[in-house]
Amino acid sequence: MKKSAALASILLLALALVALIESMKLPFGSVSAPAAGFFPLVLAALLALTSLLGFVGALRGSEASLVEEQSLIWKKILLTLGALLVFALAFERVGYLVATFLFIIFLLRFVERKSWGLALAVGFAAAVISYVIFGLLLGTPLPPGFLQI
Predict the structure, then answer these.
(1) CA-only gyration radius of the chain, Å
(2) 101-115, pLDDT tens digit by residue?
(3) 111 and 53, same structural domain?
């Protein structure tokens, strides 16, 4: 498993480098006025950094810890996919804030088994912060739902 994690990290790093090189051909713009190459460049750099960290982790970790960390739990995958489907169906009806709040709570409480306090706090923070960023700062139209907010 250690070898496969290191190999996956190397492949992701190669993909990130290709994306980085290709995105540098596009105009970058600035943070306040991003151009076509801004997000691809930033995302490629983040992917490269993440893959490097994964590679270092694969080299430092033991075989047993990697198997434990990377084991797939199908129940969690199915619960997450089901939650995404319900989120997509409820998004327009109940609104962005309520749907996002409930989605995050479900993921944290029932998929990841975190405490109610943490699930409620993170759900509230994620819904409000993402609403401020996308709805208010970026002006993205988000469905208000039955609360009209």
Answers:
(1) 19
(2) 999 999 999 999 999
(3) no
